[in-house]
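We were asked to recover a plausible sequence for a given structure. The inputs and outputs are reproduced exactly as logged, with field labels preserved.

PROBLEM: sequence recovery
POSITIONS: 241
GIVEN STRUCTURE:
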């Protein structure tokens, strides 16, 4: 683990007890549900899922409603501790998503929500995902996409860190946002097929009122007609076989 990983890990250990108040309450729950429903639609249900950067286990809890088994991996022991108490059906481990401690062809499905932007070696994560998926297995990743609205976020987060603001995700972590073609290349080079990339979610949790309410009303229209304005990229693909 390098210094960048240690910094992310320290941050998520520090915010583990307030994480769910951001993504599992009120507006955060609506924002998160839209992302997780989109990911769920793409994955085979009732199978064995690996969730990378699983945090407090929110997505594993959603996946578990359809039965099956799930394994979660995260850099932060604090987040893993929360995940273990949330999801009795899951197996959890502390580790780096770029080097997976699992055997080849162990999982039917692989997900990663809101964690990919932290990776220093995204190619390694995608290659490892390919290795641990069974032939025919599906991967789905949600991560902030590159657009005008997200271009200012790293500066904002760095400022927040300088001001010592304790807030989930607030810090200078050298986060990286991707374009459709960059995500496509990563999957393609690793050997995946049936690659699908689209944008989702316009009503971002950080928007202030009344902008949030308006954004939520027009979200489906924006996703369809002006996808470039949506914040997240949803990328999925299949391992041949
Ligand atoms: C914004 S949280 C998302 C958590 C969870 N996926 C969810 O949807 O609620 C980002 C998570 O990614 C984890 N993370 C960041 N880099 C990682 C890495 N290289 N390997 C494993 N986990 C990582 C962090 O520790 C944190 O728990």
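RECOVERED SEQUENCE:
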């Amino acid at each position: 683990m390098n210094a960048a990983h240690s910094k992310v890990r320290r941050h998520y250990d520090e915010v583990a007890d307030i994480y769910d108040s951001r993504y599992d309450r009120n507006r955060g729950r609506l924002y998160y549900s839209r992302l997780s429903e989109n990911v769920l639609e793409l994955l085979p249900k009732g199978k064995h899922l690996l969730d990378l950067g699983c945090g407090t286990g929110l997505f594993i809890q959603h996946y578990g409603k359809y039965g099956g088994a799930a394994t979660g991996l995260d850099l932060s022991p604090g987040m893993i501790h929360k995940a273990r108490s949330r999801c009795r059906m899951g197996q959890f481990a502390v580790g780096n998503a770029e080097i997976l401690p699992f055997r080849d062809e162990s999982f039917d499905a692989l997900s990663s929500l809101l964690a990919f932007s932290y990776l220093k070696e995204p190619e390694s994560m995608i290659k490892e995902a390919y290795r641990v998926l069974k032939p025919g297995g599906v991967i789905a990743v949600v991560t902030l996409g590159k657009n005008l609205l997200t271009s200012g976020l790293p500066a904002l987060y760095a400022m927040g860190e300088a001001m010592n603001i304790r807030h989930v995700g607030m810090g200078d972590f050298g986060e990286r946002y991707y374009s459709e073609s960059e995500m496509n290349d990563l999957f393609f080079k690793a050997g995946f097929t049936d690659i699908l990339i689209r944008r989702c979610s316009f009503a971002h949790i950080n928007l202030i009122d009344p902008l949030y309410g308006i954004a939520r009303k027009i979200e489906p229209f924006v996703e369809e007609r002006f996808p470039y304005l949506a914040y997240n990229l949803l990328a999925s693909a299949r391992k041949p076989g």
